Amino acid sequence: MSKHADSAHPTRPAVAWIGLGIMGSPMSENLIKAGYDVTGFTLEQDKLDRLTAAGGTAAGSIAQAVRDADVVITMVPASPQVEAIAYGPDGILENARAGTLLIDMSSITPQTSVDLAKAAVEKGIRVLDAPVSGGEAGAIEAVLSIMVGGGQSDFEEAEPIFDALGRTIVLCGPHGSGQTVKAANQLIVAVNIQACAEAVVFLEKSGVDLAAALDVLNGGLAGSTVLTRKKDNFLNRDFKPGFRIDLHHKDMGIVTDAARNVGAALPVGAVVAQLVASLRAQGDGGLDHSALLRSVERLSGAQL
């Protein structure tokens, strides 16, 4: 356990955080604010500098970050990155102590999470898959929705950490269940953004005051967290990434593949997955997923 405890912050587990991107940086900072000792590793020096400025400790490698940790949290883009940081001589499983709790908060395939949990058992390391929803704003404000797969006792041990990061925290079932629920989340979000984007183009071409229209729509049954969070993106054509099209493309592949495996038909989801893919093919992969609006604009005759 962390030795740096005081009366304001009772003893908390020492945390290693691997992956300090758009989500990982503000999430790790929220843990520091909550009184945790956080040692971080990521590939970009400026992100490590940001962590130390916030009161964390920068490590020079994964091995260095995890060797004294009670809890290791990972937040990286996709399954290949999770496998790269978890396995091998320089990875988490070889260098973390037996008894460590590994919480993977990346959004990856359910099978990758199941395989990681199995491999970790041999090292005496416990694993939770705990992907999140809420985007960059939710990460900054510590209001993320966290969907967890794994054991009940491990979940209960991790709950204080989750409480510092999010608002809706639910154990969804065994290993991989968190990722399955996250895949469903990404399906709903993508379809919702697409519907909003189509409405925006329809409203603008009809000559309606867009800001007024979106306000009244968001107050009724058509209202949604997506519309609340992305309304200004649509109004201002501001597609600075909170969640990149590239990553949503990855997630639509996960949900499409997982649905095929269990025999679930996703007809609208399949269409939106192709629209996300086409947006990426047109060079917009680095933009926020609200940039699905650009796809609808192109289909409606705009030259972008």
Question: Widest sheet: strand order?
Answer: 3-2-1-4-5-6
What is the average of the pLDDT values?
A: 96
Radius of gyration based on Cα positions: 20 Å
Estimated structural class: alpha/beta
Characterize the overall form: globular
The total strand number stands at 9
Explain how this protein is built:
This protein is 53% helix and 12% strand. It has helices spanning 24-33, 45-53, 62-66, 79-86, 92-95, 110-121, 135-141, 152-163, 177-205, 210-218, 225-236, 245-262, 267-284, 292-299, and strands at residues 15-18, 38-41, 57-58, 71-74, 101-104, 126-129, 132-133, 144-149, 166-173. The strands form 2 sheets. Strands 3-2-1-4-5-6 form a 6-stranded parallel beta sheet, with helices on both faces. Strands 7-8-9 form a 3-stranded mixed beta sheet. The model is unreliable at 1-9 (pLDDT under 50).
Could you write a compact summary of the structure shown?
Helix content is 53%, strand content 12%. The protein contains 14 helices and nine strands. The strands form two sheets. It has a six-stranded parallel beta sheet, with helices on both faces. Strands 7-8-9 form a three-stranded mixed beta sheet.
Notable traits:
304 residues; 3-stranded mixed sheet; 14 helices; globular
SSE layout:
Elements: E1 15-18, H1 24-33, E2 38-41, H2 45-53, E3 57-58, H3 62-66, E4 71-74, H4 79-86, H5 92-95, E5 101-104, H6 110-121, E6 126-129, E7 132-133, H7 135-141, E8 144-149, H8 152-163, E9 166-173, H9 177-205, H10 210-218, H11 225-236, H12 245-262, H13 267-284, H14 292-299
Parallel strand pairs: 1-2, 1-4, 2-3, 4-5, 5-6, 8-9
Antiparallel strand pairs: 7-8
Helix pairs in contact: 9-11, 9-12, 9-13, 9-14, 10-11, 12-13
